[in-house]
Design brief:
The structure holds two protein chains of two kinds. Chain A is of the alpha+beta class. Chain A has one domain: 6-pyruvoyl tetrahydropterin synthase/QueD (Tetrahydropterin Synthase, Chain A), CATH 3.30.479.10. The model of chain A has no long low-confidence stretch (mean pLDDT 96). By secondary structure, chain B is an alpha+beta fold. Chain B has one domain: 6-pyruvoyl tetrahydropterin synthase/QueD (Tetrahydropterin Synthase, Chain A). Chain B has four helices and five strands; from the N terminus they run βαβαβααββ. The longest helix of chain B is centred in the middle third of the chain and has 16 residues. The mean pLDDT of chain B is 96. Classes of the chains: A alpha+beta, B alpha+beta.
């Protein structure tokens, strides 16, 4: 069984790679390459797989999950310039793909200390027209 | 690392659900209001999911510009503001249900899908409540 929880944060980013020329950056990222940055309201959907506990009827403690999302994701990402203020994006372009992968790695070990439930996927919606899902695959 | 990227598009079109294999009465029973001989329209939303590894330099799994161009050329331009029954060859024989529309969109994308990211699935929303999904 899979349970999903949704949280939102607002952040700015600059999609430019130091390994590409200015012209290549403009071609690859278009308007998102603006060196002065731009922002989004990101929606993060975290899906967790497990079986309901026979006593509580819950896959995991949702109150605790809320705190984990708050501490591990929102406290780090919300109202930040991702390129400068989130360590994972030192030398890594904060595309929505890389944001999904970073959020996965921030959460995976912290979802359920008992090990009964596990992180199944992280979806990050950058706009209404674009989202990325990461399932921990290599 | 493999990620799944989903991009949404939309187009408006007219269709009429009527099968040549059924009597007029049967068509009315099977398709209800959708059998109206004058046709009717929808704003169709198409979600295209593509998977692939994230490029270590660009941080992208797929070029959104290239995907947008492909979808526009193969799907949106040919279907946008069309009468699907009258103007799209596939629906001369097949009834333009959401199911058949999803198959037709998949067929169109497969004919020119480039090397690289994999087409995972296509979801077509005919209305907010009526959604059809087909594996790529």
């Amino acid at each position: 069984m899979i349970i999903s929880k949704k949280v939102e944060f607002a952040a700015s980013h600059i999609c430019r790679s130091p390994k590409l020329s200015d012209a290549e950056n403009e071609r690859v990222y278009g308007a998102a390459a603006n060196p002065l940055s731009h922002g989004h309201n990101y929606v993060v959907e975290v899906a967790i797989e497990g079986e309901p506990d026979p006593v509580t009827g819950m896959i995991l403690d949702l109150k605790r999950l809320k705190d984990v999302l708050e501490d591990r994701v929102l406290a780090v990402y919300d109202h930040r310039l991702l390129n400068r203020e989130v360590a994972a994006f030192e030398g890594v372009v904060p595309t929505v793909e890389n944001i999904a992968i970073d959020i996965w790695s921030r959460l995976e070990e912290h979802i359920d200390p008992s090990g009964r439930a596990r992180l199944y996927s992280v979806r990050v919606h950058e706009t209404n027209e674009l989202f990325v899902e990461y399932r921990g695959e290599a | 690392m493999k990620v799944y990227v989903t991009r949404s598009y939309w187009f408006s079109a007219t269709h009429r659900l009527h099968s040549a294999g059924l009597s007029d009465e049967e068509n009315r029973v099977v398709y209800g209001k959708c059998n109206n001989p004058h046709g009717h329209g929808h704003n169709y939303e198409i979600e295209v999911t593509v998977s692939g590894p994230v490029d270590p330099v660009t941080g992208r799994a797929v070029s959104l510009d290239a995907l947008d161009m492909l979808i526009d050329r193969e799907v949106l331009s040919p279907l946008r503001y069309r009468n699907l029954n009258e103007e799209v060859a596939a629906f001369r024989s097949a009834v333009p249900t959401t199911e058949n529309l999803a198959s037709e969109v998949a067929r169109r994308l497969h004919t020119t899908w480039p090397e690289g990211p994999k087409l995972e699935k296509i979801r077509i929303h005919e209305t907010d409540r009526n959604i059809c999904e087909i594996s790529g």
